[in-house]
Amino acid sequence: xxxLNAIAPLIFAGFGLAACAGSAAAADAKAxxxxxxxxxxxxxxxxxQQLKLAADGSAMLAAHVQISAAxxxxxxxxxxxxxxxxxFTVVEAPADAKLDLAAKxxxxxxxxxxxxxxxxxxxxxxANIPAPKPPATDAKGGDAAKxxxxxxxxxxxxxxxxxxxxxPVERYRLEVMFPQGYVVHNxxxxxxxxxxxxxxxxxxLIEKDGLQGAxxxxxxxxxxxxxxxxxxxxxxxKSLAVFWFGLxxxxxxxxxxxxxxxxxxxxxxxxxxxxxxxxxHE
Length: 282
Hints:
Blueprint: H1 2-36, E1 43-53, E2 59-70, E3 73-78, E4 86-92, E5 98-102, E6 109-114, E7 118-129, E8 155-162, E9 169-177, E10 182-191, E11 203-208, E12 211-221, E13 226-235, H2 240-256, H3 258-261, H4 266-281
Parallel strand pairs: 1-9
Antiparallel strand pairs: 1-2, 2-7, 3-6, 4-7, 5-6, 8-13, 9-12, 10-13, 11-12
């Protein structure tokens, strides 16, 4: 018993050292995991664009962009390829920040230069998009680029957005409002297609201030991801030619089938009865 009493403290001390070593090893194992949870780099929380189309094809653009964990200096944000833009105006930005929109070329982007780092940055800007130029013509007055397309009363609006930067885009939304008196005829393209868990369609029809439009919305765009839509719209009122054609058909129907439509009188009934009696006597 004296021997056990003498070595018991040594045994418990050994267990204590083993427990300390195990705790140290567990702490070392958790260190890389904690390092992996370090604050992420900058991200685009939101890109929201509102486009108001005019009858001649020109448009007014209003955009809102939100960035998180932004560092000081220059950063390039993905943008839509609007082509030539005019009257670019910064509506909201941090003090001393500089914005430059490059909406033309293979890699459209919005360059933002921030004077200091910020956890959250909100940017708003507007611009005018001129109407598309008419196609070049050859010496005979025809389209030099392609054959003439068949005439149609439908107009088409196509939009394509690609995230060409390393910054993830958490949410992208585009609203396009069509000119007064126009309504949506068809939505032949809305990509990417909604996934199984998504209950809302990629493109939704909307209405604001008496104008009809369409909204494209998607979440989680990484480098190289693309979203697009194509809308066909037409005048809300039917063509006058259709009205006059229908009126002409109505008049012709009344002229050639007036005997069928005219209500029968007593004289007509007697005449019809006399004709039946005459046929029976024959």
